[in-house]
Design brief:
The protein is mainly alpha-helical. It has a single domain, classed as Growth Hormone, Chain: A (Up-down Bundle). 74% of the residues lie in helices and 0% in strands. The chain contains 21 helices and no strands. Helix 12 crosses helix 13. The longest helix has 29 residues. The two termini are 18 Å apart. It is a multi-pass membrane protein. Belongs to the major facilitator superfamily. Sugar transporter (TC 2.A.1.1) family. This is Sugar porter family MFS transporter. InterPro entries: MFS_dom, MFS_sugar_transport-like, MFS_trans_sf, Myo-inositol_Transporter, Sugar/inositol_transpt, Sugar_transporter_CS, XylE-like. Its main location: membrane.
Length: 478
């Protein structure tokens, strides 16, 4: 996806030197795809137990049913750039919305687990497409001095999507008297959990109609008057000579560039450029610390250690609220203290809190549905889990998306971002699909493993991650 428009700070800030409201609104609209990312991936949280018992699934089958959407996301992320170059950014976002609507309706009306897998993969493709387009698009339209905050909108939208999904799960389960109980039209509550996902997907499809097409795409298609009009509105540029210069800059960059391919990512270390490995490992560590275990399995987890189903849903919703609040803190800090310091703080905090969770579950008795934690270990585990979410939400949640959108040189940004995003989805799949098995082995082992990855992420950031705060995209080095 060639979103490498040469947008300098003065252009993006407009003639009055201030960030235009349109830039913020466009960034917010693009980030709505992140809301669907969070909603679609987390909505299954409330349905896990009902689906498992309703279809008689084992640990491997339920793990795959929960995580299969992530394989679709990897596929969608990989091909999103090519589709956006051929059909445009707005049309690609509409296609993503269509996939998500189809997935929501199909998942709610399934007759077996393999039907569910099919529709979840389709939804995953839509999520993956949105996950690649949004951060790159936002990074390209944003001035360097606020790029981190605008880029963090993606993560804010994701956590808001998670919160709304878990809140709707809790409300539907409470209304029906349980996720497996009948609700409306002869359908169980867990089916409605999937069906309601069609509403935000439809809203997204409508809202992106108001997002202007990328000036770069318009110039590449020879639609110069439209490109000028978009630049005038989005960047608040009204000087004809400045508009002509900007259009000429874009046209010149298009003539000078060629379409990047995987060959351009080759380097001396492990076959890839060091910056590409950094992007891949940022993506992998973001998932290997186990964050999505909290958001995909938390209701089942808290229910298994003695909390009622209602309390388990309430705890999960409260955790998602905390995640939203701490993401707002991260947005306020990212352009003040930088990306790398926040990552280091988060890695250290996650190592401690995950280690504490591992200690708590080492005190558990029983296994599976009969697992229990003696006092006061249950409460300590609950506090540690929420402290872990705070550490992640302050750092690795938003910072990875910010860095992936801005850290690569212009010449390879599109293809490198696609590779890193695909790696993230595959890592997410690996962690999500293996958690039921790890939980059978022992939750203490599972959280101890995630704590180890958190510690490794600390070492990785110290040695390999470069600070990008305040650096123009044109100055990013390989």
């Amino acid at each position: 996806m060639n979103l490498n428009t040469s947008t300098n700070t003065n252009d993006a800030q407009g003639e009055d030197g201030h960030t235009t409201a349109r830039v913020v609104l466009i960034a917010a609209a693009a980030a709505i795809g992140g809301f669907l990312f969070g909603f679609d991936t987390a909505v299954i949280n409330g349905a896990v137990d009902a689906v498992r018992h309703g279809f008689g699934l084992g640990v491997g089958e339920i793990g795959f049913a929960v995580s299969c959407a992530l394989l679709g996301s990897a596929l969608g992320a990989w091909y999103a750039g090519t589709l956006a170059d051929r059909m445009g950014r707005v049309r690609t976002m509409q296609i993503a919305a269509l996939f998500l609507v189809m997935s929501a309706i199909g998942s709610g009306l399934v007759h077996g687990v393999w039907d569910l897998v099919l529709w979840r993969v389709i939804g995953g493709i839509g999520v993956g497409m949105a996950s690649v387009i949004a951060p790159a698009y936002i990074a390209e339209i944003s001035p360097a001095n606020v790029r981190g905050r605008l880029g963090s909108m993606q993560q804010l939208a994701i956590v808001l999507g998670i919160f709304v999904a878990l809140l709707s799960d809790a409300w539907l389960a409470s209304t029906a008297g349980g996720a497996a109980k009948m609700l409306w039209l002869g359908l169980e509550a867990w089916r409605w959990m999937f069906l309601v996902a069609s509403v935000p997907a439809l809203i997204y499809g409508v809202l992106v109609l108001g997002v202007p097409e990328s000036p770069r795409y318009l110039v590449a298609r020879g639609r110069l008057p439209e490109a000028r009009a978009v630049l005038a509105k989005v960047l608040d540029m009204h000087n004809d000579s400045a508009l002509d210069a900007k259009v000429n800059d874009i046209a010149h960059s298009l003539r000078m560039e060629y379409r990047p391919s995987l060959r351009d990512l080759r380097g001396p270390r492990g076959g890839l450029l060091p910056i590409v490995w950094t992007g891949i490992l940022l993506s992998v560590f973001q998932q290997f610390v186990g964050i999505n275990v909290i958001f995909y399995y938390s209701s089942t987890l808290w229910h298994s250690v003695g909390f009622s189903e209602t309390d388990s849903f309430s705890i999960t919703v409260a955790t998602s609220v905390l995640n939203v609040l701490v993401t707002l803190v991260a947005i306020a800090l990212v352009d003040k203290i930088g990306r790398k310091p926040l990552l280091l703080i988060g890695s250290a905090g996650m190592t401690v809190t995950l280690g504490l969770m591992a200690l708590c579950f080492s005190q558990a008795s029983g296994s599976g549905a009969n697992l229990s934690l003696p006092a006061p270990w249950g409460i300590i585990a609950l506090i540690a889990a929420n402290a872990y979410v705070v550490c992640f939400g302050l750092s690795w949640g938003p910072m990875v998306w910010v860095l992936l959108g801005e850290m690569f040189p212009n010449s390879i940004r599109a293809i490198a971002l696609a590779v890193a995003a695909a790696a993230q989805w595959i890592a997410n799949f690996a962690i999500t699909s293996t958690f039921p098995w790890l939980a059978e082995v022992g939750l203490s082992f599972a959280y101890g493993l995630y704590a180890l990855f958190a510690l490794l992420s600390l070492v990785f950031v110290m040695r390999a991650v470069r600070e990008t705060r305040g650096i123009e995209l044109e100055d990013m080095k390989a």
